[in-house]
Design goal:
Layout: H1 13-38, H2 46-67, H3 72-79, H4 83-101
Helix pairs in contact: 1-2
C-alpha cells in the first residue's frame, strides 16, 4: 500500500499503516481463536469482531485506492471512452464515494 504517498495530502500515512495493522491483527486474532478452539475455549464474539475489523480495513482501503487512482479495471474502461465522458464518470464516482464515506 505504500507505493502512493502524495505529499500534498495530510495524514496519508494513516491510510497505509492503520489498515495494515488491522489486517495483521485480524490474522493473529483468527489464529488465536483457532488454537483456543482446539483447547475448548473459543473467543466469544469472534465473528462479530472480525466482521467489524474487515469493515474498518475496507473503509480505509477504498478511499486510499481512490486517492492513488488505483482502480485498474476502471482505468481500462475509461481509456476507451472520450475524455469528457471519462471526466464525468470520474466526477460521479468521486461524489458517490464522498456521500458513502462522509458520515
Amino acid at each position: 500500500m505504500k507505493a502512493c504517498m502524495p505529499s500534498n495530502v495530510p495524514c496519508v500515512a494513516c491510510f497505509c499503516s492503520f489498515p495494515d495493522s488491522t489486517l495483521a491483527f485480524m490474522l493473529l486474532f483468527t489464529l488465536t481463536n483457532v488454537v483456543m478452539r482446539a483447547f475448548g475455549k473459543p473467543i466469544v464474539g469472534d465473528f462479530e469482531i472480525i466482521s467489524f475489523l474487515g469493515a474498518v480495513v475496507i473503509g480505509f482501503a477504498i478511499p486510499y485506492t481512490s486517492l492513488c487512482k488505483g482502480h485498474i479495471a476502471v482505468d481500462f474502461l475509461l481509456a476507451m471512452l472520450p475524455r469528457t465522458t471519462s471526466d464525468w464518470i470520474n466526477l460521479a464516482t468521486r461524489i458517490i464515494a464522498i456521500a458513502l464515506f462522509s458520515g
